[in-house]
Amino acid sequence: MEPRPPLKERWKPGVSKSVLLLIAGAVWMGVGIGLDLLAWSWLRREPTAPALLSAALGIAAALVIHHFGFLRIVDRNLGRIRPMEGRRCAFAFIPPKSYLLIAVMILMGVLLRRSPIPKLYLAPLYIGIGTALLLSSIRYWRHALTPPPGPLP
């Protein structure tokens, strides 16, 4: 008879690497949509011309952030997840030390929203990061649903 695994292992939510990729895509997409919706709710209250300019700046920033920032992070995560064998903890879709960075980013977001900075000026930042997260989530979905046969693109 095999010994029972430690309590920590029995309660760990183990999932396959495909599920890890789906979780990562869902989290990135959900946060991206949330940030975009928040920014759009701010811009709805602004005059049309400044709101459009703010949104356009945010979308331009999103393309830069997506291409030069988030795709590198996604590729690093894919390079870490794809070779995994067996079931892994459901929270392993990002490296453990990244959870601290996420906490700092959430805190910064809360402080920015409560700051005296006009929402018209915060909206491009939120649209930029939110839309970049949304665009970058597509790579997770693509790898989860149709894993590529070779090395990362």
Question: Measured on Cα atoms, how large is the radius of gyration?
Answer: 19 Å
Number of domains: 1
**Low-confidence sequence ranges:** none
Number of helices: 5
Note the quaternary state here: single chain
Strand elements, count: 2
What does it look like?
The chain has helices at 7-11, 17-43, 48-81, 98-114, 119-145, and strands spanning 14-15, 88-89. It contains five helices and two strands; from the N terminus they run H-E-H-H-E-H-H. Helix 2 (17-43) runs antiparallel to helix 3, helix 2 packs antiparallel against helix 5 (119-145) and helix 3 (48-81) packs parallel to helix 5. The protein has one domain. It is elongated, with a radius of gyration of 19 Å. The protein is mainly α and 153 residues long. The model has no long low-confidence stretch (mean pLDDT 89).
